Amino acid sequence: MNNDFTIKIVTFTVNDDKLLVYLSDSHLPQGKIESGESLDAAVGRIFKDTLNLSVYDYYFEQLYTFSKPAKTTTKIEVVYYILLPKFVLKSLNNWFSLAKSDLARLVDRKIISYAIQRLQWKIEYTNIVYSLLSKEFTLSELQKTYEAILGKELDKRNFRKKILLLGILRKTAKVRKGIKARPALVYEFRKRTPEMVKVFS
After folding, report:
1. Where in the numbering of this chain does the NrtR DNA-binding winged helix domain appear (predicted)?
2. Which of 145, 147, 181, 187 could form an SS bridge with 169, CB 3.0 to 4.6 Å?
3. Are 144 and 154 in contact (CB under 8 A)?
4. Would strands 2-15 and 73-83 be described as parallel, antiparallel, or unpaired?
């Protein structure tokens, strides 16, 4: 019996306070593993061909492996998800909102739904939300990124108190001036590498 390997990639970004996913012709980017190629190398090649970016510059991890035996072959589907900050994207073409009404029409909706769920779980106990932000940001921008992923609003006062007590942020000497609001302090993550931290109880 032969094995038929396919890799699918779920790529997320946040824009205008919304979680977006990259789709090509309404499908997730996918490809085959070439002879002698590792899974990560195959993901890197497919990702490079799709967005002309190096996957190793961003947070990515394997989501799950699904197998479906048949008479002559076993179809194996390996899924990865990748987090991209908006500022690295040259265009938002092919990026789609993940509203439930839109998600229901997609061929890969089950995969995308599970990837969202995994991401929601992951940001509860790690700092990987940094992957969706620029190096410097305001607390408001950070909160809106969490809200975009979780799909719900967070209490501003409680969020800021909690996130600052964690000690994962460093205040810079900069402020960001808004048109109406008073200048906002600018922060950065102390570490832009994955680490365990209990963000939500």
Report:
1. 130-189
2. 187
3. no
4. parallel
Domains (range + CATH), the chain:
2-107 (3.90.79.10), 128-189 (1.10.10.10)
Identity at 54, one-letter amino acid code: S
Phi-psi region for residue 151, left (φ > 0), alpha (ψ -120 to 50) or beta?
A: left
Amino acid code (one letter) for 91: S
Give the whole-angstrom CA distance, residue 10 versus residue 121. Answer: 16
- Give the pLDDT score at 36: 87
CA of residue 130 relative to chain centroid, distance: 10
Dig out the tokens for 73 from the structure: 């072959």
- pTM attached to this predicted model: 0.91
Q: 7-21, 93-107, 118-132, 142-156: which has the minimum mean pLDDT?
A: 93-107
91 DSSP assignment? -
Angstrom distances, CA of residue 61 to CA of 72, 80, 148, 151, 183: 30, 6, 20, 22, 37
Tokens of 67: 């197998």
